Amino acid sequence: MATASTPRYPIHEGLNIAIFMVALPVTWGLLWVASHLSLGWALLAAGVFALANHTPFSLMHEAIHGNFSTSRFRNDLFGILSAPALPSSFTMQKIAHLGHHKRNRTDEELYDYYLPGQSKIGRTVKIYSGNLFGFYWLCIPVGNLLYLLAPWIFTSRRFVEGPAKALGFAPYLREIVDYSRLRIWLECLWALLYHVILWVVLDLNWQGWLLCYWAFALHWSALQYVDHAWSARDTIEGAWNLRVLPVTRMFSMNYHLHLAHHRHPQAPWTALPGLVRPEDPRPTFWRIYFRLWGGVRPAPPMGAPATLDRV
Questions:
Q1: Which residues face 114 on adjacent strands?
Q2: What is the predicted pLDDT for the residue at 129?
Q3: Exposed, middle or buried, 169 (CB in 10 Å: 0-12/13-18/19+)?
């Protein structure tokens, strides 16, 4: 929450709306290409979709932090309109993401290390399946579908302390279940209707849709932890300002400048490049990504510095 001492950054709402108006039709076109043209074109469309679908996600991320618009109504409206591209409920993502800012690099959110009493093999499997093979993303549409079909199961103590705890999501679900069930249910319904409408209007097939979304899952799931892995064990400083190609930063709306974002969550995406400190390490995405394939390490204590020299 902003305070009297919090710097105020200009929010370029018109630019955000223009990006929104372009980004979604681009993703629709890529889904159509993947469903209707040859395999070569489908593979190309999926590769571009892996980057392009990050734009509506980044717009939703801006709305989560109140940085899409100075109007609370328009901010939440465009967050709700952007969320189905993930696909997800905006409110559910907002609760989970703000929880991430509170728990970042704590024992409750630590995937590149294993804690005393935890299985190194089990934690490594979670890195492979969740972050590197895209199953982290898969948990989102599956969770939204479960909430839509059986919210009483999703919000039950047995589910939160059982499957959700095993997957590492229990702290987030405990906060989600305390929120308005109707609002989240309606947003989950909207996410489903969005894709049903796309399938009908664009005559999509499951092969093209799945190819695009699995390519996106591989990229999105990896990025969610590449921008944190091996960083300082600190809720704010535990992130990286990653070096990526300009086109990748363009599609992600500076999402890779993640340390700057964690230091200044009230700053919109347009302000982040100016908030990167000259002394900040700037590892490449691929440098950390490939190190994740080496598995987890023993966890250092909270407050331990980054281990970039070993990455």
A1: 298
A2: 85
A3: middle
Of the CA atoms within 13 Å of residue 227, those in its CB half-sphere come to 21
Q: Identify the band that residue 309 occupies on the pLDDT scale cut at 50, 70 and 90.
A: low
d(CA 32, CA 309): 44
Q: Are 150 and 194 in contact (CB under 8 A)?
A: no
Count the Cβ atoms, other than its own, within 10 Å of residue 288: 22
Mean per-residue pLDDT, 237-262 = 97
Instruction: State whether the Cα torsion 224-116-235-228 is positive or negative.
Output: negative
Question: Contact 100/94 with Cβ under 8 angstroms?
Answer: no
pLDDT beyond 60 at 277: yes
Q: Mutual orientation of helices 39-52 and 206-226 as an angle, nearest 10°?
A: 40
pLDDT tens, position by position, 127-144: 888 889 999 999 999 999
**Is residue 199 within 8 Å of residue 266, measured between CB atoms?**
no
Q: Are the C-beta atoms of 272 and 257 separated by less than 8 Å?
A: yes
Q: Considering the entire predicted model, what is its pTM?
A: 0.93
Q: For 129, which DSSP code?
A: I
Mean pLDDT value across residues 59-73: 97
Q: Which residues contact 96 (CB under 8 A, 6 or more apart)?
A: 172, 175, 176
Q: 209-241: per-residue pLDDT in tens?
A: 999 999 999 999 999 989 999 999 999 999 999
Give CA–CA dist 147/124, Å, rounded.
Answer: 28
The three-state secondary structure class of 26 is helix
Q: Would you say 199 and 209 are in contact if contact means Cβ atoms under 8 Å apart?
A: yes
- Give the whole-angstrom CA distance, residue 133 versus residue 217: 8
Q: Quick one: how far is CA 140 from the chain centroid?
A: 10
Q: Is 114 exposed, middle or buried (0-12, 13-18, 19+ CB in 10 A)?
A: buried
The DSSP symbol for 85 reads G
d(CA 81, CA 68): 12
